[in-house]
């Protein structure tokens, strides 16, 4: 029995052994990683500065080094060289460094102030037939063409040219029915009350400079005043925008469809300046002055105190009342609003409104130093430069003081800080410097903003530096020459300088705005002759009103 069991065990073991060997387990093939090569180094004109390069010459040399020698024939279709719009730029590829370095050179000179993108795609092959592991993109931005775009003329001739060309915005492009200034060069029938005040000052400057005759200037002023006498007003204040044909309000925003006291004050300052200029004894000029007085006296400044409070309010709407709820507090562009309100023979405001509302009992003071310059009033670094332009187109800051500041010091410090900031260029924007400076409210790419050291988006507005001539004449002249001679083919148009530009983004506005063009003409004139300052400050109401607010000046 034991022997039988032994043989059975051998048979069973043999059967199982045979079955196992007849069905072996499958063997998995080894995993082979994809073969590729890598980017190793980049040099543009011999330097490495990341993957974006500014200020390049018009035939830059780009060298891209890889971990393997390159198959030059694979460059076609796998290296693209285009401008920002996608237009292909011809180039010549060569190899060096044992064929590990691909050298790309434009076949023709690149355009100035233009962005190009050089992209190496993953289809690029090594000599072994391997593909590039990851694509490489390099941004190449060319420099400003340093050649003069216009013939050189004397500094005095250049200032006159800028004033004359910019004057055309208000004269040639003035609204045909109302005579007022259009908001911007694409505004159609939309005219601006504040910008028209600047335009009236520009009109006076144009007559004084013999750009137009006094008779023609008077005719335009008669048209303007006639229109304003019948245009829509709200407790005497004009809206921000008007229809130049009908005089009806065009809402600036949904609730801003009524009186705008700040814009009205800019308009009134212009009208008072014109009244002082047209001082002839003949009936036409006498009637013009009478009509201007009627318009000015009709502004209910005190009503905009909102229930007799100690601050003026910016807006009132017949539909939304005081919903905008914006008290006019300093420091900003609105000093002129309090001056015009205090100077008004009717509906004037007392000093307490100025002290408590505008000055906030001294809370508008600063006193800190920025870029080596002490700033008496306002926000850190001074804010946008229009703070020192709009009110001071009429108000002469020279020797002007009150409880809160010396305004000659204030305006000069503000402009100097703005200049010093742009020169220091802490944000590293391409193009900023001692010849290219000026941050203020302006158009920007796809929008509008109030640029300042605290809100710097890389956009320079010519009006900022040029309207500061009275404060920073040397720095402003350097900027003017750069804007005109070096950038003039992109910045200069039918109505003077376009609104703004960004060398960082290779963007140049094609727009012109009344509130930016006007200060250029007027503040250059104040720098040259004090004309508008002298006229505005000669008004008896202005003298009395400013004295009542506590101002002291040789001009009062």
Automatic annotation (TrEMBL):
Question: Which part of the chain is the SbsA Ig-like domain?
Answer: 62-136
Pfam families in alphabetical order: Big_5, Glycoamylase
Keyword Transferase belongs to the record: no
Q: Tell me where in this chain the Glycoamylase-like domain is found.
A: 326-539
Entry keyword set = Signal
Q: Does the keyword Signal apply?
A: yes
Can you say what this protein is called?
Beta-glucosidase
């Amino acid at each position: 029995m034991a022997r039988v069991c032994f043989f059975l065990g051998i048979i069973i073991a043999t059967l199982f052994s045979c079955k196992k060997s007849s069905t072996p387990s499958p063997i998995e093939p080894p995993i082979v990683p994809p073969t590729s090569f890598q980017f190793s180094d980049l040099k543009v004109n011999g330097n490495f500065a990341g993957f974006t390069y500014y200020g390049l010459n018009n035939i830059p040399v780009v060298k891209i080094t890889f971990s393997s020698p390159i198959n030059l024939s694979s460059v076609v279709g796998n290296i693209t060289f285009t401008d920002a719009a996608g237009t292909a730029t011809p180039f010549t590829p060569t190899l060096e460094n044992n064929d590990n370095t691909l050298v790309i050179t434009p076949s023709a000179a690149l355009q100035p102030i233009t962005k190009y993108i050089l992209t190496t795609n993953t289809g690029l092959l090594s000599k072994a037939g391997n593909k590039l592991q990851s694509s490489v993109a390099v941004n190449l931005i060319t420099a400003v063409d340093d050649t003069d775009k216009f013939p050189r003329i004397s500094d005095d001739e250049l200032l006159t040219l800028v004033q004359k060309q910019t004057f055309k915005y208000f004269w040639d492009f003035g609204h045909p029915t109302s005579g007022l200034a259009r908001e911007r060069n694409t505004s159609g029938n939309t005219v601006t009350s504040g910008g028209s005040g600047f335009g009236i000052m520009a009109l006076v400057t144009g007559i004084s400079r013999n750009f137009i005759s006094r008779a023609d200037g008077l005719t335009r002023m008669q048209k303007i005043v006639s229109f304003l006498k019948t245009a829509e007003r709200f407790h005497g204040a004009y809206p921000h925008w008007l229809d130049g044909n009908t005089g009806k309000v065009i809402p600036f925003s949904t609730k801003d469809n009524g009186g705008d006291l700040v814009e009205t004050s800019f308009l009134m300052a212009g009208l008072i300046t014109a009244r002082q200029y047209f001082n002839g004894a003949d009936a036409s000029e006498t009637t013009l002055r009478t009509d201007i007085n009627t318009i000015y006296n009709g502004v209910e400044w005190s009503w905009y105190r909102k229930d007799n409070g100690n601050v003026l309010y910016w807006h009132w709407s017949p539909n939304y009342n005081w919903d905008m709820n914006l008290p006019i507090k300093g420091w900003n562009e609105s000093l002129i609003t309090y001056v015009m309100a205090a100077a008004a023979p009717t509906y004037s405001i007392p000093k307490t409104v100025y002290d408590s509302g505008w000055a906030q009992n001294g809370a508008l003071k600063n006193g800190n130093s920025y870029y080596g310059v002490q700033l008496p009033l306002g926000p850190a670094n001074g804010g946008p430069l229009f703070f020192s332009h709009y009110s001071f187109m009429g108000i002469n800051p020279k020797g002007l003081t009150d409880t809160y500041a010396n305004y000659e010091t204030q305006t000069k410090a503000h402009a100097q800080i703005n200049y010093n900031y742009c020169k220091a260029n802490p944000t590293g924007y391409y193009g900023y410097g001692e010849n290219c400076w000026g941050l203020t409210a302006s158009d920007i790419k796809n929008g509008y903003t109030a640029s300042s050291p605290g809100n710097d988006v890389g956009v320079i507005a010519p009006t900022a530096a040029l309207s500061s001539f009275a404060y920073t004449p040397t720095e402003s002249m350097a900027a003017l020459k750069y804007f005109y001679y070096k950038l003039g083919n992109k910045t200069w148009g039918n109505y003077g300088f376009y609104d703004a530009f960004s060398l960082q983004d290779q963007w140049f506005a094609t727009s012109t705005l009344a509130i930016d063009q006007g200060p250029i003409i007027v503040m250059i004139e104040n720098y040259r002759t004090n004309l508008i300052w002298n006229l505005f400050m000669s008004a008896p109401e202005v003298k009395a009103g400013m004295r009542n607010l506590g101002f002291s000046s040789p001009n009062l």
